[in-house]
Amino acid sequence: MTGPEPRSAPSGTVFAAGCVLWRRSPSGAGIELALVHRPKYDDWSHPKGKLKRGEDTLAAAVREVLEETGHHCAPRARLGTVRYVAQGRPKEVSYWAAESTGGLFAPNDEVDRIAWLTPPAARTRLTQPRDRLLVDALLNALHAA
User: Terminal CA-to-CA distance of the chain, rounded, Å?
Assistant: First the structure.
């Protein structure tokens, strides 16, 4: 994970955006994070997706949260950009911390399940190690707020 947007990206880079979506635990003890399960990849991740032509990264992140989780959100701190290679192409995903403001999940072709988990449980469930770093970034951002 890195900080601000790069000045230039390799040709053919796929740009995406997402959020580490969280809510206050219904029990009142701490927070829970929303993870999405994508059946196409059989993985657990934070909600994210590709930018549409001309779309701002934050707008894309909020749109993807709604599309993948059914939840509206209030974005807060920018958590950074994750860079990796996916299907042979460089990919850059910008992330924000976002608090759920309500909604209802409905399974779809992209996401068949979501899970609300404590931060330690989310770290364990996440498929990619790079996504676990975002849990720490969220906790640091919430602590600093």
Answer: 21
